[in-house]
């Protein structure tokens, strides 16, 4: 579009016709339309043409046209068509709709980018008590206008094993609890269960998978947690988690991805070797991660225990920066595949 600066009345000395001509000329530069041989698409569908988007490769480019008012089966409104400029014909794109997508006005909104097409129907009504809410559905189609399969949802069981020994100061211990709460909140709405155990030279199970599943208030699970003190028996704590938490009696599910997150300063006082307990964890299919704690974090200790870390380490410093770890791409991310390790900590040192 071309915009032209108009002269003031004192500057312009031409006639009114000349002024009008200038205006029409400027407007004509804004766009151009093909009027000699236009291609017209017609379809006996209510609302046909309410939304239009170009889609397809250079050799097979066409138009996708929405008809959001067209009725179909019972309580079904909205259809979408692929129109071919060569033939001038349109063909309906079949989209599988969820059972509750009643009168959704499919095709009211369309968007295309590269080889993907997004088709939306925003007028699904949902009754909640005496109130009625409007929600919608969107469907992602590939370049062949086939619906992309949704990623399968794998259940995930995650145990937090937190270091409550005397080498952890009070403020760091509270940061651990905050971190645990933030991670749990990030997984809200997913098929993920959590459990928490604290260790020092003694061990305390704060909640298992069953208790987590029956509790709606996360803070109520963490607020009673108090630091144990004493020495650091990390290896024995891992063994205890494997044998006493990742079991069906505690709510651990068959077929679920099993994740163990150890939050510690890296110290170790027990005589049990990591190699012994890690072998048990691997046989149980448990994926392990470690997060180091603040300035007291002993990097040399964690470097010597690569089997414990799962080759991933982080340092937990500031409460206000916990959110950084949870939101930055590549830090902690939920995945749908066990082979993607379900919980990913980037393999590099990071201070948060």
Automatic annotation (TrEMBL):
SMART domains: VWA. It comes from the Eukaryota. PROSITE patterns: FG_GAP (PS51470), VWFA (PS50234). Pfam families: VWA. FG-GAP repeats lie at residues 34-92. Residues 157-352 form the VWFA domain. This is VWFA domain-containing protein. The lineage of its organism: Eukaryota, Metazoa, Chordata, Craniata, Vertebrata.
């Amino acid at each position: 579009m071309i915009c032209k600066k108009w002269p003031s009345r004192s500057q312009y000395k031409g006639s009114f016709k000349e002024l009008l001509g200038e205006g029409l000329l400027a407007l004509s530069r804004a766009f151009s339309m093909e009027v000699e041989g236009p291609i017209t698409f017609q379809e006996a569908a209510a609302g046909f043409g309410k939304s239009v988007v170009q889609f397809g490769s250079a050799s097979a480019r066409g138009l996708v046209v929405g008809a959001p008012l067209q009725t179909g089966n019972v309580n079904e409104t909205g259809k979408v068509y692929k129109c071919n400029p060569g033939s001038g014909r349109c063909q309906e794109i079949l989209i599988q709709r969820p059972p509750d997508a009643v009168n959704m006005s499919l095709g009211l909104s369309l968007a295309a980018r590269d080889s993907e097409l997004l088709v939306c129907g925003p007028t699904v009504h949902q009754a909640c008590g005496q109130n009625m809410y409007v929600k919608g559905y969107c469907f992602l189609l590939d370049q062949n206008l086939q619906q992309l399969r949704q990623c399968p949802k794998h259940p995930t069981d995650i145990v937090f094993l937190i270091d409550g020994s005397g080498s952890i100061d009070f403020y760091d211990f509270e940061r651990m609890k905050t971190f645990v709460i933030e991670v749990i909140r990030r997984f809200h709405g997913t098929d993920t269960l959590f459990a928490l155990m604290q260790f020092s030279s003694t061990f305390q199970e704060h909640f298992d998978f069953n208790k987590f599943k029956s509790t709606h208030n996360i803070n109520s699970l963490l607020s009673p947690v108090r630091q144990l003190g004493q020495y650091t028996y990390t290896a024995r704590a891992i063994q205890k988690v494997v044998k006493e938490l990742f079991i069906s009696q505690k709510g651990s599910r068959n077929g679920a991805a099993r994740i163990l997150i150890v939050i510690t300063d890296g110290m170790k006082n027990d005589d049990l070797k990591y190699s012994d307990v890690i072998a048990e964890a691997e046989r149980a299919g448990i994926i392990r991660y470690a997060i180091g704690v603040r300035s007291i974090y002993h990097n040399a200790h964690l470097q010597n225990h690569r089997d414990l870390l799962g080759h991933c380490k982080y340092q937990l410093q500031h409460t206000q920066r916990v959110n950084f770890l949870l939101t930055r791409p590549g830090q902690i991310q939920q995945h749908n595949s066990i082979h993607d390790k379900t919980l990913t900590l980037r393999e590099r040192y990071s201070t948060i």
